[in-house]
Amino acid sequence: MPKGGTGSTAGTGGANGGKGGMTTGGTAGMATAGKGGSGGAGTGGAAGKAGAGGSAGSATTCARWPTAQGSQSVSSTIEVSGVYDGGLKRFSGTGELGTATQGEDQDPLFDLSNNSTLRNVIIGSPAADGIHCNGICTLENVWWEDVGEDAATFRGTAPSLTMTIRCGGARNAADKVFQHNGNGTMIIQDFVAQDIGKLYRSCGNCDPQYARHVELINVDVTNSGPLVGVNENYGDTATFTDIGTSNVDAICERYIGNDTGAEPESTGDGPDSAHCLYEASDIHGI
């Protein structure tokens, strides 16, 4: 499971606090358990306190499958601009969003504008089309209990855009977890998934098409079809680092994509030097 980052050291005026929980004005590193710091030499400073000008960070735990802290029904899409912290409540669709099918063109529970962050959210069932990201966005500590059409869709249009998913998990996806329809790069880090069709798919028949990129780092997947699907004719790439698998059909499958809406043709799977970029040492059992 997700390996936590190391937080910043507490500032002067106090001893060095436990890393992973405090910062000097910054955001705490994500960790299952931070590394303990050594006692500092600050006079009169209480061990573990933030230094002058700093404040204790709002640490995000990367515990596997956290317990929901309450529930909220979503009858119309929640528009997110900036940062939305769900407090680890379970959000489930109702009314027009009360769907759990694979029907196309469903609305999402959350719609993120450019430069937005969604954190500390559990997506329950029904989940409609999960989350849409319309530019640079971050999903942090977001968990899908029962994926609807897709867990999240990246819809940005510029090659410089990045969608980052870190510290989260998804279960029960009849098809894809993450759908990449737009341009740019998707980063999936410190993530677990089980009982899914695919973890990531670069759209095989969208109009327009782009060269899309995905990076997977510290990801564990159990019971899946091909982990990743990319379009070789549009220059897609997928990189893999520290990937744990159990009962996964393939790591990376290549397709000939199109912009006509036709079903794309598979050309095979496995590592190569252009699109599916990994070595045997990057993959391990779980």
Explain this structure.
The chain has no helices and 15 strands. With 286 residues, it is an all-beta fold. Strand 12 and strand 13 form a beta hairpin. Helix content is 0%, strand content 45%.
Question: What would CATH call the homologous superfamily of the domain at 129-285?
Answer: Single-stranded right-handed beta-helix, Pectin lyase-like
Number of strand elements: 15
- Segments where pLDDT lies below 50 for 5+ residues? 3-60
- The helix-strand sequence is EEEEEEEEEEEEEEE
Report the span from N to C terminus: 10 Å
Amount of helix:
under 10%
Q: Quote the CATH topology of the domain at 129-285.
A: Pectate Lyase C-like
SS-derived structural category: mainly beta
Under CATH at level 1, the class of the domain at 129-285 stands as: Mainly Beta
From the coordinates shown, what is the CATH architecture of the domain at 129-285? Answer: 3 Solenoid
Summarize this structure as a short list of keywords or feature phrases.
about 290 residues, mainly beta, Pectate Lyase C-like, 15-stranded mixed beta sheet, 15 strands, globular
